[in-house]
Amino acid sequence: MKIETKKFGEINGETVTKYTLINQHETKISLITLGATWQDFSVKETDGRHQLLVNFDNLEDYIKTPYYLCKAVGRVAGRIAGAQFSIAGKDYHIENNEKDYALHGGSHGFSFINWSAESRVDEKQASVIFKHYIKSSDDQYPGNLEATIIYTLTENDRVTVTFLGKSDQTTLFNPTLHAYFNVTDSQHDLRKQWLKINSSKRLELNTNKIPTGNFLPVKGSNYDFQQKENLQDVLDKLKKDQSIIELDDIFLVTPNSQEPVAEIGDSADKRRIKIYSQRNAVVVFTTNPLDPEREKQHDFNALAIECQTLPDAIHHQNFGDIILPAGKTAVYNIAYQYEH
Question: Could you tell me if 20 and 3 are in contact, meaning their C-beta atoms sit under 8 angstroms apart?
Answer without folding.
Answer: yes
